[in-house]
């Protein structure tokens, strides 16, 4: 096929416009983080100045040290890490089991159960937070790590992702294993589960970010300072009539760094898991 000079020119222009749109979109996404970083390095009077200044003068790197010393940031980091890691492990196991059952095991009412799981995606946590609190209080789980972990151990989105991933695996693979005498449990652990690793990594990153940034559940469960997580702890810098914006932004930047590092390391598998989930 012969391409005319006009078509080549239009192709270059369209690619340039596409690249320009991507650059503008990326800048729009990164500007809030850059503003947080800038504010975290300012003196308080510059953070409140109008018109706002992008470049701090001077750069107060000690804001990060002061923030770490002013509040128990180390304890909150450990709490957030503990809760998030346990939540990720629980979701990888339970969501995978539920997704496999809904994808491969034929039982009466399977589609009804799946629609029930999907319907949970439309229910915001704010509408069920009171029953969750009453249940946790009746179980004696207020001011405990278990109270922050148990409500997050299973995710409707995780079950959906794993079900779609298992549906993408040809049934002939499992039929061959059945002929060889493999049990359902062995097929799940040794054959199908390794084949959905990109989706599992995607689920792990999603649940880690969700748990790491969760504010409402720790607010309900943790009344004692020693059980606070990072999102809840950052409220310490906000008072009724006064907010220490440099310290608050410094805490926000420190809380963002672990998520950013994880995504940069695993972004290839994250994108692959998202892109292959809905192929079935």
From TrEMBL:
Q: ABC transmembrane type-1 domain: which residues?
A: 77-266
Coiled-coil region: none
Nucleotidyltransferase is among the record's keywords: no
- Residues spanning the membrane: 16-35, 76-100, 112-134, 146-166, 187-209, 247-271
Q: Specify the superkingdom.
A: Bacteria
Q: What does the record say about its membrane topology?
A: Multi-pass membrane protein
The main location class comes to membrane
- Please give the biological process terms from Gene Ontology that the record holds: transmembrane transport
Q: Which GO terms describe its cellular component?
A: plasma membrane
Which InterPro entries does this chain map to? MetI-like, MetI-like_sf
Record keywords, A-Z: Cell membrane, Membrane, Transmembrane, Transmembrane helix, Transport
The keyword Transport belongs to this UniProt entry's keyword annotation: yes
Q: Name one Pfam family in it.
A: BPD_transp_1
Compartment(s) where it occurs, according to its Swiss-Prot or TrEMBL record: Cell membrane
Q: Which family does it belong to?
A: Belongs to the binding-protein-dependent transport system permease family.
Protein name in the entry: Carbohydrate ABC transporter membrane protein 2, CUT1 family
Q: Which organism is it from?
A: Alicyclobacillus tolerans
């Amino acid at each position: 096929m012969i391409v005319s000079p006009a078509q080549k020119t239009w192709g270059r222009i369209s690619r340039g416009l596409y690249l320009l749109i991507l650059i503008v979109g990326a800048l729009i996404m990164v500007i809030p983080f850059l503003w947080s970083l800038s504010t975290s390095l300012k003196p308080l009077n510059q953070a409140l100045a109008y018109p706002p200044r992008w470049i701090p003068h001077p750069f107060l790197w000690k804001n990060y040290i002061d923030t770490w010393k002013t509040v128990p940031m180390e304890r909150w980091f450990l709490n957030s890490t503990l809760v998030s890691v346990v939540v990720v492990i629980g979701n990888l196991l339970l969501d995978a089991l539920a997704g496999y059952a809904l994808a491969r095991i034929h039982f009466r009412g399977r589609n009804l159960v799946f629609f029930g799981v999907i319907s949970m995606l439309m229910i915001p946590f704010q509408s069920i937070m009171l029953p969750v609190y009453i249940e946790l209080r009746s179980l004696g789980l207020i001011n405990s790590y278990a109270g922050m972990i148990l409500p997050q151990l299973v995710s409707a989105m995780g079950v959906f992702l794993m079900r779609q991933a298992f549906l993408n695996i040809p049934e002939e693979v499992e039929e061959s294993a059945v002929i060889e005498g493999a049990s359902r449990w062995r097929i799940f652990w040794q054959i199908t589960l390794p084949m959905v690793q990109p989706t599992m990594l995607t689920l792990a990153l999603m649940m880690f970010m969700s748990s790491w940034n969760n504010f409402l559940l720790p607010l309900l469960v943790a009344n004692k300072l020693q059980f606070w997580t990072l999102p809840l702890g950052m409220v310490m810098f906000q008072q009724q009539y006064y907010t220490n914006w440099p310290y608050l932004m410094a805490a926000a930047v420190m809380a963002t760094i672990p998520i950013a590092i994880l995504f940069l390391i695993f972004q290839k598998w994250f994108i692959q898991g998202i892109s292959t989930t809905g192929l079935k």
